[in-house]
């Protein structure tokens, strides 16, 4: 099945401009064209776009994504290198998650502190009424 650039953008969550940019920098192979010269994307193309979107969402730099894409084009001989990129990035994502969980703990503590202070204020107001 083929998809238009608008459908590819909607499916991947990327803008049409971003799809064209990814094509220009080599993250995405130039898509096939229909008889009118419009880009058409296969299901495999959409899967790749979703994967790229996940990498960006997890904070992978474009440079690293390009390295991964270039290795993918070389073929099976690069599987180990591609796996290492993903292992390294996963470690980085896990570090970021731990950092965010720590920050969340601080926010939860502060929110609970304010909730307690406001409850005390309401109790004090009730006692003086």
TrEMBL record:
<feature type="domain" description="HTH merR-type">
    <location>
        <begin position="2"/>
        <end position="71"/>
    </location>
</feature>
<dbReference type="Pfam" id="PF13411">
    <property type="entry name" value="MerR_1"/>
</dbReference>
<dbReference type="InterPro" id="IPR009061">
    <property type="entry name" value="DNA-bd_dom_put_sf"/>
</dbReference>
<dbReference type="InterPro" id="IPR000551">
    <property type="entry name" value="MerR-type_HTH_dom"/>
</dbReference>
<dbReference type="GO" id="GO:0003700">
    <property type="term" value="F:DNA-binding transcription factor activity"/>
</dbReference>
<keyword id="KW-0238">DNA-binding</keyword>
<protein>
    <submittedName>
        <fullName>MerR family transcriptional regulator</fullName>
    </submittedName>
</protein>
<dbReference type="InterPro" id="IPR047057">
    <property type="entry name" value="MerR_fam"/>
</dbReference>
<dbReference type="GO" id="GO:0003677">
    <property type="term" value="F:DNA binding"/>
</dbReference>
